[in-house]
Amino acid sequence: MKPDKEQYARLLKQACPRSPLLRDCLWAFFVGGGICLLGEGIRTAWLAAGHTLSDAGALTSATLIVISGVLTGLGWYQKLASKAGAGTLVPITGFANAVVSPAIEFRCEGLVTGVGARMFSIAGPVLVYGLLASAVWGVIWWLIRPWLL
Amino acid sequence: MRLGDTVRFTRPPGLEAWAAVGGKKEADGPLAVGFDLLFTDNRLGEETWEQAESTLQRHCVELVLQKAGLGAAQVDLALGGDLQSQCTATAYTFRSLDIPFAGVYGACSTMAETLGLAACLTAGGAAGRALAMTSSHFCAAERQFRTPLNYGGKRTPTAQWTATGAGACLVTAQAGPGQVQLTAAAFGRVRDLSVRDGTNMGGAMAPAAAETLCRFFADNRCRPADYDGVYTGDLGVVGSELLAQLLTAEGIDLADRHRDCGLLLYDRETQQTGAGGSGAGCAASVLTAHILPALKAGRMRRVLLVCTGALMSTTTLLQGESIPAVAHLVELTAPES
Question: Exposed e or buried b for every residue in A17-38, given b needs 16+ CB within 10 A?
Answer without folding.
Answer: eeeeeeebeebbeebbeebeeb
